[in-house]
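Q: What structure does this chain adopt?
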Amino acid sequence: MDIPIDWEYKNPSLYRKTEEGTPQAFGFYDKSLGAFQISCKQVTDHIKNLISTRKETIQSSDSERLFFSEQFIQSDGQNVYAFSCAVDDHYFFATYIFKPTKKLQKKLDTELSIVRNVLASVKFIKEPYRQIVITQRRFDLYMSAIATIMEMKSKAIEKESYIEYIVFSANHIDALLRLSIILDNQLKAKNGNIDPGLLFQSETDNAIMERTIYQRCLDLGIISNGLFTELEKQYKERNKVIHRFVITDIRSEDVFKLAMEYEKLYEKIDTIILELERKQIEEGIGVWGKNPSSGLSEEQRTLLQTKIRDKHGRLPIKK
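A:
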């Protein structure tokens, strides 16, 4: 579904696996008057009876738009708008719950209107397209996280927090090298395929470590032997800062120098990314070949800022 840019995900964590059908909660970054939740469950005998009782039509996922039935349930403590929709072999159930208030009725009406617009955008993705959509969504989150890292690096420099800068730079370089593998693979295979294993690591996934990424980039010819050696050296020095500051002779003065070395490494890897992007655009292949960009529009810039805010979560971020 299309999530409004001023909504945030309200569940404890977007990345923790939850039981299938668990309600997903959304709302405004600033306090919402109402609470919106939506869930999608496979149809059971109980849900079949519910669909029959409500005389709902089972809609097709091929439909241009899904239509939700709507019920209003009023009580003393709170009011509920309940929405439901049967599609293929699944059932959507959504609620908008709020405390009745005459003073803020206009704001409630606005929020409810937004909820209805969101529900009008809902699509049920069936196999075999589901993994394609999930991977694209994961890629969007990945690129937003890279933008967040760039912002955090800049703030670390402003604060002269060089250990922070080193941590963020190591993340940034690892992310760019993973991206370089994706872009290079697309150019060689002449397609837009993305390996989701490079984009995301759940609690139960086998980790693809930084040094494995360095080696893969070397084997693919993305980086030179010289750059590979620099990355390996930087990795070992970084670990002294993070894990062995007390038990080695490394000094705070060296931390600053290491941060500057990371900046030089970033510039070299960024040049590699730019070249891969240029090739994709020229050949019309891959993520950039199919969507060449001449810069961010104001709307895209606002959306990116919102995604960065999502990556920070509920922490107050000083500008």
